[in-house]
Amino acid sequence: MGFFDKLKKGLTRTRESFTGKIEQLVMGYADIDADLLDELEETLIMADVGVKTTERLMDAVRRGVKKKEINTPEDLKPFLEARITEILATGSDELHTASEGPTVMLVIGVNGAGKTTTIGKLSAYYKEQGKSVMLAAADTFRAAAIDQLEIWSQRTGAVLIKHEEGSDPAAVAYDAVKAAKARGIDMLIIDTAGRLQTKSNLMEELSKINRVIQREIAEAPHETLLVLDATTGQNAIRQVELFTKAAPITGVVLTKLDGTAKGGVVVGIKSELSMPVKWIGIGEAVEDLRPFDAADFAKALFDK
Amino acid sequence: MIFEGLADRLQETFKKLRGHGKLSEEDVNEAMREVRMALLEADVNFKVVKGFIKKVQERAIGQNILDTLTPAQVVIKIVNEELTELMGGTQSRINMSPTPPTVIMMVGLQGAGKTTSAGKLGFSLKKQGKHPLLVAADIYRPAAVKQLQVLGEQLEIPVFAMEAGTDAVTIAKSSIDFARSHVNDVVIIDTAGRLHINEELMQELKSIKKEVRPHEILLVVDAMTGQDAVNVAESFNGDLGLDGVVLTKLDGDARGGAALSVKAVTGCSIKFVGMGEKLEALEPFYPERMASRILGMGDVLSLIEKAQTAFDVEEAKKMEKKLRRDEFTLDDFLSQMQQVRKLGSFEQIMGMIPGMGGLKKQLAGADIDLNGKEMKHIEAIIYAMTPKERADVGIINGSRRKRIAMGSGTHVQDVNKLIKQFAEMKKMMKKMKKMQKGHMGLGGFKLPFMH
To answer: How far is CA B323 from the centre of its chain?
Structure first.
């Protein structure tokens, strides 16, 4: 199965509850009235598009009705499809790499978002592309986090840089950048401990890691990826806002997108945060984490 | 802040509505729009919100507005009461089996915090004199078993694990025998995280349930979960029959609407909450606190109630008169402060006032220390003054300041600070007086949101 089909399959639930619901609405109503608009709003919110984005889309719909761009319920779907595709396509989701020397990726996020697993999958992805990969175990806090990353490094054939549990994560990052430079590594991926964005001491620790990396390679980290669990609701916005203060985020990795009806969260992130989505995870298998492609995603969301 | 608290927003809505009477349907509908937004922004499920709003609407229309409360406060009171009721009572208890071992199963999505919660629950039970056994039945995530083992070591709770390759059902089953022979009276099974739509893995949980017949199946839910919380809870409840919920990561800034969604669709009480990665006990769940948190408005209600009882009405009237005549002195300041203190610590009060959360943070870093100690100092300084000085701050010159500092065991800077603060407060009160034109229901010291 190609990735697009996989994506389509992963978004089945979203499509059913979102696109499918819109189609039902179109069938069920002869005219565009308040009830129809209420139900449309409900559909958008249930897909985790976000309260603000929903309001924005609903405003657009109301304006469309006024301006006679939307005349019948049938006009709703193409109208929304165009608007959502537009939102998805804003900004560039391209991945930054180093022009020379190692490309450094710093992976951050709250507890349980799926950072370590994401790194394992990223490692597999780059390995498959023939790149040399180094993983740095800078989550020195959570019990067995280092072991977890070590298993991934063994599975994917990546080099692992680790210190003791409880040691300074910035020191791990420092060693890793040094080692990656010395050994001519292509991709250095740094794992960090999960932290809630409200813990200022931990955010300070993160910005220290960032500084240490920057000191070694001025334009690094080339990517600072915030791993977001797609089941997260409105708190995602707070996460982006506060994490980026500690370590400027270049993009988001959305994990656990598969299976359930929450694909709409991508739309919310794009529209409310203007944050590039770099990777999406649509399954548990290693190859299910892929670079995000806005056009494909929109197509998979609306395709029959 | 991206969202203002509901209380602030309702205040805005009801700005035009002054005086007393009954809440009209129109007023209520307008207010309900705000309530709805607040709930949705807190990630309460849309359907749950709908049902809830309907209920509140019915109750609120025609409600009398009491003398002491504003229309906004009346609505908030109803919303809060309904929300608290919907959230259920405090039931932070585990169903203990009369014949040990009591078997507890922890289930949930990946990354919800099952392993950490299992450890914390074990710790809570251990503190209660039980002898828990932690069971590592997550055979999928790399190093999950190790994680539980490390936790067990830190907590000094035994961990049951089997060699790699053993299936989860066998591990769970064997752990019960192990617990029996090792006199462990509680068995906590940490299962692998899974998507609720993954049939194969849900089947595994059903098999474990069938084999070990747990007394308690706890769903671990991340407080940050969005609209999907309902589907997750429904599936797990449908497949397994849940006994309770553990809400994790509440130490963050998520509003935690998922709690309400989960409660509404499963009917299961939220038994515990997790507040951080440190290995302390799980904390009991307080419905009132959760209700206020979801509404993003601090503990307004208890503040309203406290304010009603703590302020002496006579005292308030006297104060009001003084204020009007601009006769407010340091003595009055002291008695105001002492009244306010009846409400709790200043910091607590700030936490309870909507929109003050941010201010509280600011103040904590600024020059006013809001804890009781600072209040004690202020008290001491004022007591060290002569009645004349208290009546007229203007006469307190350098040498008087020195004397007051000596007499109160503080420094001249402290005395200066207090005098400055007092002057500021007087200025502020003048402003407030102008704003509210004598409508002072609750006492001289009007809290900022109670106009």
So the answer is: 35
pLDDT averaged over every residue in chain A = 90
ipTM for the whole complex: 0.83
A111, A114, A198 member nearest B113 (Cβ):
A111
Rounded Cα distance, B215 and B383, in Å:
61
Chain A residue at shortest CA distance from B148: A143
- Cα–Cα distance, B104 to B134 (Å, whole number): 10
Length of chain B equals: 451
How far is C-alpha B424 from the geometric centre of its chain's CA atoms? 32
Using an 8 Å CB-CB cutoff, list chain B residues near A245: none
A161-180 b/e with 16+ CB inside 10 Å = b? bbbebeebbbebbbbbbebb
Q: Which residue is associated with the tokens 């804003």?
A: A90
Residues of chain A contacting residue B232, judged by C-beta atoms under 8 Å apart = 231, 260
Say how far apart CA B79 and CA B75 lie, in whole Å.
6
Candidates A43, A231, A241, A288, partner chain B, best to mutate (most B CBs within 10 A): A231
* Strand extents, DSSP E, A94-161: 103-109, 133-138, 159-161
What value does the mean pLDDT of chain B take?
79
Find out whether B308 and B66 touch, Cβ atoms under 8 Å: no
User: What domains appear along chain B, each with residue ranges and CATH number?
Assistant: 4-86 (1.20.120.140), 102-285 (3.40.50.300), 300-450 (1.10.260.30)
Residue pLDDT, tens place only, B244-270: 999 999 888 888 889 889 998 898 889
Are residues B227 and A45, on separate chains, in Cβ contact within 8 Å? yes
Is the Cβ–Cβ distance between A295 and A96 less than 8 Å? no
Cβ contacts below 8 Å, chain A against chain B, sum to 136
Out of B112, B143, B149, closest to residue A151 by CB? B143
Q: How far is A225 from chain B (nearest CA, A)?
A: 18
Q: CA nearest A233 in B: which residue? A: B226
**Which residue bears the tokens 């919800």?**
B112
Residues 6 or more apart from B336 whose CB is under 8 A from it? B319, B444, B445
d(CA B303, CA B321): 24
Confidence grade of residue B446 (pLDDT, cut at 50, 70, 90)? very low
Q: What is the pLDDT of residues A221-249, one digit of tens each?
A: 999 999 999 888 888 888 998 999 999 99
Measured between CA atoms, the residue of chain A closest to residue B50 is A42
In A, which residues are within 8 Å of B255 by CB distance?
Answer: 234-235
